[in-house]
Amino acid sequence: MKFSVSLYSFFSAIRNGELNPMDCIAKAKEMGFDAIEAVDFVMGCPPEEMPEQAKKIKAEADKHGLAVSSFAISADLLNGQDGSGDVAKEIARVKSMVDIAEILGAPRMRHDITMGQKDSPRSYAALVPQLAESVREITEYAAGKGIVTMTENHGFFSQDSERVELLYNTVNHPNFGLLCDIGNFTCADENPATAVARVAPYTRYVHAKDFIIKSYYDDNPGEGAFQTRAGNYLRGTVIGHGNVPVKQCLHILKAAGYDDTIAIEFEGMEPALTAIRVGLANLKRYWEEA
């Protein structure tokens, strides 16, 4: 098993000027990670500068003996990134991000699917054939570069285990798989263990994440929390400090034969460096015990 950390986990420290993206790579090595996960918006540059920034990140990772486990990007294959509905333009942009993944030396790239339709909404199942066609075109391009593409249970609309399973089976391409984020299922009010059991056979990469969960009927916890699709409250926290059954989810993945890379994705209010360090210690222990 290899352990990675998403650069997104350091975002609060980057935003307040404590670290820059290159500093995060050195910190990841210091903490005992095997790899880092690059994220488009954390790279901190406009699109035209991303190839050069990717080269710098790759060089810094190489310097510290770290792999780049994956590259995560935003996308909307229904509305287009600019909301214009120009799907062909969005596919071309996502393909250009595959080129960035190649520069990074990342064997995988995760892209969003869509946030859903705002006008004349249609069900996820009704949109899947159209979405799958775009996903298939992207993954065929990526396959030529030896890069696996993935969707993640992310973004509320494409979040449930049944939905991402349906998309996976409709795309039906050997180069396309699922990124299983064990915490994100709670955003769709799913039981994480049940959801992970559904998608484990298709999982090509894992995000470890924890949330503190409060019912809609509890008091609103205020700053730092957001609401699920059904109105419950979530706040990101240190792995092991929340309500996500992390060890149970790891047990399910291990039983399904998963033995590749798990990346921490922290998005809580705690100081990032402390949260990542404690989270990694807990994650390694849970994996051994699972």
Features:
290 residues; alpha/beta; eight-stranded parallel beta barrel; three-stranded antiparallel beta sheet; 9 helices
- The residue ranges in which pLDDT falls below 50 over 5 or more consecutive positions are none
Q: What would you call the structural class?
A: alpha/beta
Number of strands: 11
Biggest sheet overview = 8 strands, parallel, barrel
Helix and strand sequence:
EHHEHEHEHEHEHEEEEHEH
Distance between the termini: 13 Å
What is the percent of helical residues?
A: 25-40%
Output the radius of gyration. Answer: 18 Å
The strand order across the widest sheet is 1-2-3-4-5-6-7-11
Multimerization state: single chain
What can you tell me about this protein's structure?
With 290 residues, this protein is of the alpha/beta class. Helix content is 40%, strand content 19%. The chain is globular. It starts with a strand and ends with a helix.
Could you give the topology of this structure?
Blueprint: E1 2-6, H1 11-15, H2 21-31, E2 35-39, H3 50-63, E3 67-73, H4 87-104, E4 108-111, H5 124-143, E5 148-152, H6 161-171, E6 176-181, H7 192-199, E7 203-208, E8 210-214, E9 226-227, E10 233-237, H8 246-255, E11 261-264, H9 272-289
Parallel strand pairs: 1-2, 1-11, 2-3, 3-4, 4-5, 5-6, 6-7, 7-11
Antiparallel strand pairs: 8-10, 9-10
Helix pairs in contact: 2-3, 3-4, 4-5, 5-6, 6-7, 7-8, 8-9
Summarize the structure.
By secondary structure, the protein is an alpha/beta fold. The protein has 9 helices and 11 strands.
